[in-house]
Write a structure and sequence with these properties.
201 residues; 44% helix; single chain; 10% strand; 9 helices; alpha+beta; 5 strands
């Protein structure tokens, strides 16, 4: 058991028209009445169902829908971001920007004793876990554009400083896979001019 995550790309104008109290039902039940355990990648509502043409569910590879994989990817990143060859590099800045823009809190920010920012109105509506309008998605995708060609260079640092034998995100391929899945989410949403939301389910 534990916290899960369900991620959607959405046409932002259409999404903002959904009443907050109907948001979760529309996305998790009405749009996908027969899609309980789909494969990885994009899942689109069938023709005629609510959400057709303006939302898409993204299933991450090898996570079983659990947020634990995402959390532990952040933990593994903390183990390698200050290592020789990574600290001060373009890939560190790009991966920092992507992960901290999504959900990860850098150690230096966690040490700040100031109060955390209040959730936005969009984050409060409909029980959302994350909410990124198109402008924020474009910024996240730009970080991934910079990170993607450099990610493989993290392999040695991961193998030495972050690899584990049990648990989530044990190996570099698992870490890389999660990053690439997030890259697919934000790039496709940017291509369509859409936003991204996530439910804690």
């Amino acid at each position: 058991m534990g916290l899960d995550i369900t991620v959607f790309a959405v046409d932002w104008d259409r999404f903002e028209q959904v009443p907050a109290d109907a948001c979760m039902d529309l996305f998790l039940n009405d749009a996908y009445p027969e899609l309980s355990y789909p494969g990885a990648g994009w899942q689109w509502p069938r023709p005629g169902l609510p959400g057709e043409g303006w939302l898409a569910w993204y299933r991450f590879r090898d996570t079983l829908g659990s947020f634990k994989a995402h959390f532990w990817a952040g933990e593994r990143w903390e183990h390698i971001r200050d290592t020789p060859g990574v600290i001060g590099s373009p890939v560190r800045a790009a991966v920092d920007g992507l992960l901290s823009g999504l959900y990860w809190v850098p150690p230096e920010a966690a040490e700040d004793e100031s109060e955390p920012p209040e959730p936005s109105d969009e984050q409060r509506r409909g029980g959302l876990m994350m909410s990124f309008p198109p402008s924020e998605v474009a910024a996240l995708a730009a970080y991934w554009d910079r990170a993607e060609p450099l990610v493989d260079g993290l392999r040695e640092s991961f193998d030495v400083h972050a690899a584990v034998s049990t648990g989530w995100i044990r190996t570099f391929p698992e870490f890389e896979s999660l990053l690439r899945d997030w890259g697919e989410v934000v790039r496709e949403a940017r291509r369509r001019g859409w936003g991204v939301i996530a439910f804690p389910l």
